[in-house]
Amino acid sequence: MTSTTAKAKSKQKAKKEHTSGDKRFKVLDVTMKRAQNRPDALIEVLHKAQEAFGYLEEEVLIYIARGLKLPLSKVYGVATFYHLFSLKPSGAHTCVVCTGTACYVKGGGEILKALEEKFGVQVGETTPDGEMSLLSARCIGACGIAPAVVFDNSVAAKQTPELAQARVKEWLSEK
Ligand code: FES
Fold first, then answer.
1. Residues 130-143: tens digit of each pLDDT
2. Residue 49 CA, ligand 1 centroid: distance in Å
3. How many domains does one find in the chain?
4. Residue 49: which domain range?
């Protein structure tokens, strides 16, 4: 391979990767690649996305549409048709607790329970004041810093029930 071809290839690769560096997009890349970016892998990829993000937000749907070369309308259509998929929740803030194996064994389940109890909300729901939606995900690609919780798209490492509760309380007091 000439150096120009190598350069062009790495440029192409960099362009394809999600710019945020969020490892969850890598999980999607792997799933799409495994399915050879076939459009008929859409449901499988949406499943993976929901597992990794806890819900499907617009940015993720756009990423999938590009990856599978499908119109965004088609991706939206499928995501809204099946009840097992949930689109971005309605809370002003979102808190996604990872309950994948690595996080679970290190207390992810207790964090989730503590948040449910403290803020009177079940996983998958939004607090009555609309301030926080609580969700869970199965591995967000950050097992090395387990247990991990994503607060409004920022991944927090080595969480405890107390730390997570304090972070959510901050949101509520910002009002
Ligand atoms: S299991 Fe939580 S990040 Fe992998």
1. 999 999 998 888 89
2. 14
3. 2
4. 8-81
